[in-house]
Amino acid sequence: MKSFSQYIGIFAIFSFIFSCSNDFLQEESFIDETTPIVISPNWEANNYSIYCQGVGSSKFTVIQAPSWLVISTPSGQFIDNTTILNCKANTYGDFSEIGIYYSFITLSVEGIGNLAVPVVYITEGNPVFEAATLATLDPNNGHMLWLPINNTGNGILLWYVAQYPEWLTLNTIEDSIVYILPSNGRDNFHISYNTDVLLLENTTGKIVLITNDIHNPAVEITVQMDLGTPVFISWQSGTIDFGRTETARQYSFSNQGNGPLVWKIEGCPEWLSVSESSGILQNYQKLLTFTCHRELLPSGENEVTIYLKTNDKNNPSVPITVTARGNVTNPENIKEIQGNITDACMDKKTDILYLTTNQPNRFVAFDTKTKAVVRELSLNHAPTCFSISEDNRKAVIGHGGYISSVDMENFSVSKIVEVDYNLFDIEWGDDDWCCYTPGQEVQHY
After folding, report:
1. pTM (2 decimals)?
2. pLDDT at 326 exceeding the cut of 80
3. Angle, vertex CA 177, rays to CA 172 and CA 178, nearest 5
C-alpha cells in the first residue's frame, strides 16, 4: 500500500475535517480546524501534511501520541500554518476488526499552547474496486453521466480522483478528496461536460482514480466526448460595415443540428470588440453585438477579416469581413455617448438626433446644436432598433422578443407588446401599423 499512502499523505484531504478544541488554543481568533492523519498499518512510513489555521510559523514538539503510532519527527516548525509529520502505524490488536478508529496526537506549539491533531487508524481488510473503464458523453443525455463505483470485497475501500481532463466537471465529488466505501457499498460518480472549456472537436481523455485495492491501486477510466452533428446557419452576409459613424452592428447565427454548437470569435483588432467571444449553442439562435471603438480606429478605410470557429465539420471557420472608416479631421464634432448605440435617426426639422443604446438600455434625444442630451428614457429591455412616426408623436422600439410603444410628447413608454422573435429592424406603416424584421421574415402587429 505504499503508493496509496504516498498519495494520501501528500495530496489528499480526508472527506471529513476534525476540530481542535478551543481548550488547545490561547487566541480566540484561531479557526479551530486541523487536517487529520489518515493511516493504516499496511502502509509504509510517510510524510503527512498537518494544517491548522492560526499557528503561523510556530515551532512545535510532540508531547503525546498513541502507542501504536511511530513518529520520526518529534519536533519541527509550522510554515504558513502547515507542517509535516513522518509517521508509521503498527498493527494494534484492539483495532483488528475491519473498521475506522480515532485517536489524537498532542503537539505543544510554541507561544500558543497544546494542539490536538486527529489520527484516523484504518483496518482495511480486502476491498475490491469495480467500475466501468469506458464512458461516453453524448448530446442526447445532456452531456451528463453517472459512473457507479462498487466495493465487492471484504474491507474498506478508499478512493479519490487524481486526474481528469479539463473539459470534465466532477459534480458529486471533489478531486483529491478521499472517499470511503464499505463492503458491498456503491458510490455514484457524476461527471458532465465543462462548458467553460470549449471543444471544437470530439476528444478522448482519462480519469485516474487512486484506490487501496492492492490489485487496482490506480484505475483509468477512458471518457469519450461526442459532440454530435451541430449545423451552423447564418442568414446574414459575411460582412459587417460600420461606415463613418456607426459604433454597433449585430450578427446572428443558429444551430440547426443534433448536438451543441461550440463557437468562438478570433482575430478582432483592438478597435473591435464583441458582446460574447465564445460559447456553446444548443438548438437556438445567437445574437452578437460587435462594437467599433472609434477612438482606436486608424484614419481612412479599415478592413479586417475575423473568423467564427465552430465544431460544425462543414463550417469549421466562417470568415466575417469587418469594415469601418476612421475620421479624426474634426475631433471637436465627436461626442461621446454612454452605452452601445444600436440605432439612430435624425429629425432635420428640430436638429434632434434620436438614438437607442444598450448597457445602459436607453432611448435618447440629442440636440446636435447644443451637443447635449435633452431627453432620456430608461428601457426595461435592451433595444435593437426603433422608428418614429411621421407626425413625431409616437415611436416604436424593437427588442429581443418585445416592442415598446413610446409617447414622444411625454417621452415615456405607453405599452409593451411581446413577440416571438428578436427584432433587427422596425418601421412605421400605414394606419399606425408597424412592420418589423426578424432575420429575413417580415411580421406585422
Report:
1. 0.54
2. yes
3. 105
